[in-house]
Design a protein that fits this description.
By secondary structure, the protein is α/β, with parallel strands linked by helices. The protein folds into 4 domains: 75 residues, Signal recognition particle alu RNA binding heterodimer, srp9/1 (2-Layer Sandwich); 179 residues, Rossmann fold; 71 residues, Helicase, Ruva Protein, domain 3 (Orthogonal Bundle); 191 residues, Peptidase M41 (Methane Monooxygenase Hydroxylase, Chain G, domain 1, Up-down Bundle), CATH 1.20.58. The chain contains 23 helices and 12 strands. The longest helix has 39 residues. The protein starts with a helix and ends with a helix. Bound molecules: adenosine-5'-diphosphate (ADP), magnesium ion (MG) and zinc ion.
């Protein structure tokens, strides 16, 4: 280092030639000479204080001789040592940098490892959710479920009343119902109403990458919950962990079963009236492990169903609170137009209508926007209108066939509209309003089932009457599928045929691939299978015959209705019936 410093000072002076240096030495002008063989130079200090570096030959003897003869002091500087020191310093610096870098990396990876190890523990999600704004009045149309849960809230608020009478606070409440009916919403409402801590977690979050973490999370959740009692623990979509253990081909999933086992153990571990209520939601109660639903675990089951018409009005009203509706909008009317809609569907309807209104620069949501939103939700986005007139005419006859048959049969569903404007799910379509009883109570009469078959085949019947048996199209294939399914159910499940009042098949839903692999065989003889097929075919055949005879005698009316449909593209149910003279 010091050499480096010197060098700088020495270089300040202008150079001196070799021969001049020799002369200066002879003339005794030089005070001191430092020879640096390694650098092939000599550092010269003059009497007057000047310092100069002069390059020399590698084996220079002349300087030595000159210095000797003139008596100038000369030292030899070992430049290699200087160099070595400088190199060492550089190396040390690099080593230092590497060490710092490494320790930084190590610390980082240690942090990551820590996170992985304490992973089940340090989940921020396990904090109780606060300031939940949802209240019971935001949940409508599922009043029975709401009432039962209000009871749970009372448990949490005044447990003494119940304990004094010897009543046990329920441990687990299972909310079961189709998607979008408001289960999650209801759980949030309970938490909002009860004013107790609310731990919420999706079951799929339990099942994690690392083996054992699922179980440890359950343990952790319950440990925290017990600390905070009274409180509510909500597990959404519990079927993700609570599926039947060891079911299906290939057995179960270890990780999931471990998690489920832990859940069961924790539920048993609660003392009575500990003030922790476990709430879970699922839309697949049929796949839940039976151990989960036995008394002492999820001992209350609350069914959350699709809302009926009154419920739909109430739900629409909830979601209309935050949206400007035009005065013309009658929610009762829209509730009748939306049978089978869940709460989420209804919320979506109003939302789509609001989007449409915004796009059309409207200040409020009117019937037109709601109509557009309903179309979009039920039939998908609109496509380009049909152009080709021959094809269009055939499609018009097909749809008029459906609609006319439906209007003629008292047991059939009412026509809501007939349209030739295609949506992405269908080229043209006829929409029906399901019967009130049917949509609210799920009750189907034998006559309405058969009427549905006739209506479904009305399209093909019209094509055949107008264009002849060779010109009919495959456009009826969707209708046939529906006919096959309904007719099969009528025969094998509903007891609507000559085969008598026997359920020959269960509701066809295979949840676990191959769960009943070995026990699966049709519950009837081969000859019965033959009879079933015959019955189905008979039903379909007689439905087509009836549709043909209804339409055959009204050929002129069909032509008129088709003209009107092609002209107007869309006919509402009323317009259609008045054109057909059937009001
Ligand atoms: P899920 O039953 O599938 O858990 P959610 O509770 O998540 O359904 O419902 C989704 C959304 O649908 C809710 O946030 C709410 O806006 C709306 N919704 C569903 N059911 C109702 C209902 N009964 N009353 C009011 N809004 C509802
Ligand atoms: Mg949900
Ligand atoms: Zn059809």
């Amino acid at each position: 280092m010091s050499g480096f410093f010197f060098q700088k000072l020495w270089k300040k002076e202008k150079g001196v030639s070799y021969s001049r240096l020799l002369r200066d030495i002879d003339n005794k002008k030089v005070k001191q000479l430092d020879l640096v063989p390694a650098r092939r130079e000599v550092r010269v200090e003059y009497d007057d204080g000047r310092r100069i570096n002069v390059p020399i030959f590698s084996n220079d003897n002349q300087i030595l001789r000159a210095a000797e003869s003139s008596g100038t002091p000369l030292t030899v500087v070992d430049g290699r040592r200087e160099q070595a020191i400088r190199d060492l310093a550089g190396t040390l610096l690099i080593v230092l940098l590497v060490v710092i870098g490494l320790s930084f990396l190590l610390r980082r990876s240690a942090q990551i490892a820590n996170q992985a190890l304490g992973f089940g523990r340090s989940q921020p999600r396990l904090k109780p959710q606060e300031d939940l704004q949802v209240r019971f009045e935001d949940v409508e149309g599922i009043n029975d479920a709401r009432q039962e849960l209000e009871e749970v809230v009372t448990f949490l608020r005044q447990p003494e009343t119940f304990i004094r009478l010897g009543a046990k606070i329920p441990r687990g409440v299972l909310l079961v119902g189709p998607p979008g009916t408001g289960k999650t919403l209801l759980a949030k409402a309970i938490a909002g109403e009860a004013g107790v801590p609310f731990f919420s977690m999706a079951a799929s979050e339990f099942v994690e990458l690392f083996v054992g973490v699922g179980a440890s999370r359950v343990r952790d959740l319950f440990r925290q919950a017990k600390d905070k009692a009274p409180c509510i623990v909500f597990i959404d979509e519990i079927d993700a962990v609570g599926r039947q253990r060891g079911a299906g081909i290939g057995g179960g999933n270890d990780e999931r079963e471990q998690t489920l086992n832990q859940l069961l153990t924790e539920m048993d571990g609660f003392e009575e009236n500990s003030g922790v209520i476990l709430l879970a939601a699922t839309n697949r109660a049929d796949v839940l492990d039976t151990a989960l639903t036995r008394p002492g675990r999820f001992d209350r089951r609350i069914d959350v169903g699709l809302p009926d018409r009154r419920g739909r009005v109430a739900i629409l009203a909830v979601h209309a609170r935050s949206r400007p509706l035009a005065l013309e909008v009658n929610l009762e009317y829209w509730a009748t137009r939306t049978p089978g809609f869940s709460g989420a569907d209804l919320a979506n309807l109003l939302n789509e209508a609001a989007i449409l209104a915004a796009r059309q620069d409207k200040a409020e949501i009117g019937d037109a926007q709601l109509e557009g939103a309903l179309e979009r939700i039920t039939m998908g986005l609109s496509n380009r209108p049909l152009q080709d007139s021959a094809k269009k005419r055939l499609i018009a006859y097909h749809e008029v066939g459906h609609a006319l048959v439906a209007s003629l049969l008292p047991a059939a569903n009412k026509v809501d509209k007939v349209t030739l404007l295609p949506r992405n799910k269908a080229g043209a379509y006829t929409r029906f309003i399901p019967d009130q009883d049917q949509s609210d109570y799920g009750l189907l009469t034998r006559s309405s089932c058969f009427a549905n078959l006739v209506v479904a085949l009305g399209g093909r019947a019209a094509e055949q009457i107008v264009f002849g048996p060779l010109e009919v199209t495959q456009g009826a294939s969707g209708d046939f599928q529906m006919v096959a399914q309904l007719a099969r159910e009528m025969v094998t499940r509903f007891g609507f045929s000559a085969l008598g009042p026997l359920a020959l098949e269960g509701p066809g839903s295979e949840v676990f691939l191959g769960r009943d692999w070995f026990s699966r065989r049709p519950g009837y003889a081969e000859s019965t299978g033959q009879a079933i097929d015959d019955q189905i075919r008979t039903l379909a055949k007689s439905a087509l015959d009836q549709a043909m005879s209804l339409l055959n005698s009204r050929r002129q009316l069909m032509d008129d209705l088709v003209e009107a449909l092609i002209e107007e593209e869309t006919l509402s149910g009323e317009r259609f019936r008045s054109l057909a003279g059937l009001t």
